[in-house]
Amino acid sequence: MMDMDSEGITSGPNVTNCSSAPADTLQAVRFTDGMVAVVFVLCLLTLLTALINGAVILAICTTKKLHLPANYLICSLAVTDFLVAFLVMPASILYISMERWSLGQVVCEMWLSLDMTCCTCSILHLCVIALDRYWAITKAIEYARKRSARRAAVMVGTVWIISIFISIPPLFWRQRPSTGRIQQCIIEHDHLGYTIYSTLGAFYIPMIIILILYSRIYNAAKTLYQKRGSSRHLSGRSMGSQNSVLGQNFRVSHTFCVSDLSNSDPTLPSEKFNANIRVPSFETDVDGQDEKNQICTTRERKAARILGLILGAFIVCWLPFFLKELLVGLRVLRPSRLLSDLLTWLGYINSLVNPLLYTSFNDDFKLAFKKLLRRKEQA
Q1: N or C: which end of the chain has fewer CB within 10 A?
Q2: DSSP per-residue letters across 237-280
């Protein structure tokens, strides 16, 4: 529809018949109104992405309770997504609204490189966050000693290096007209090897790793749930025997809830088992244990929902774009400009969704956001 409108506008000055002018004028009005709506929506998405990721960065930097290695990875993800909103999305809005590139060749090269680097880095951040959570749940005691700010910095640095190596190669062979102004600023698909290399490194391999890690996290959690149920049954039997032998309601309680969420991670189980010795009455102890089990079950379901949302949002936002890129590189598909822009912005939206998914379900982040809002009101 947009292509048809733009053709009508272009052919207008070549028509000498005055009776055709009103039709061309109406086409231009419809085109302009539609573009204004599109630009407004895209600007709103950009603003929200910048504000929400900025709030996450500020909350982590100003809240001492959030100064944890797992949150440093989330903060780095927020910085990357903020760069997408600040450096990549505005130029895309300008390009879409003008329907041609008007910022010159040098800026075009910089924009394409930043686009590929920041978006790839955002995706790889999701991969290292999943890896961090996998280690935390499967090697809780061992990884707790290794989980440090330095280790988080190494992981972040590795992500940026990989992202740069994926996005830099086209600069060595990308050809632009030496004279005149360029009209298009797009990723060329003239090197099939690089298309396969970049799509595998930026999305397909990270997606497979993320799916494997989160499936193993789920299986590990499921195993611990079963152990918790078994220990609860044995504990109940030992209570009865102790009560009959000792003549008092003495019990050693060793309970753990796999999804006791740590302050630093809303989808991870607690890395510590809650071991204590209590001397309550038998009825009170049983009631407390049942209440604890209900809380555990609720948190387990919540954690499963969060994992599903994280995986679902990531795949929905990025799979269509990278599938299109691979098919274009294989010369199987020639998408329209409208479809390409739509799939590109669907990927950009992941930078808006990430901070919502990784912080909204965490009570510590909620409190930090409330403090930021109160400071703003006082100011």
Answers
A1: C
A2: HHHHHHHHHHSS--EEEEE--TT--BTTBTTSPPSS-EEEEE--
Angle between helices 282-329 and 105-138 (to 10 degrees): 150
Check if the beta carbon of residue 202 is closer than 8 Å to that of residue 116. yes
Question: Is the distance from CB of 37 to CB of 93 less than 8 angstroms?
Answer: no
Structure tokens at 196: 């396969």
Cβ contact 131:158 at 8 Å: no
In Å, how far are 189, 268, 279, 355 from 173, measured between CA atoms? 11, 45, 75, 36
CATH of domain 29-173+181-378: 1.20.1070.10
Q: Where are the domains of the chain?
A: 29-173+181-378
User: Which pLDDT belongs to residue 106?
Assistant: 87
Rounded-to-10 torsion of CA 48, 52, 53, 57: 150
Predicted pLDDT at 296: 59
Give dist(CA 58, CA 50) in Å, integer. Answer: 12
How does the average pLDDT of the chain come out, rounded? 77
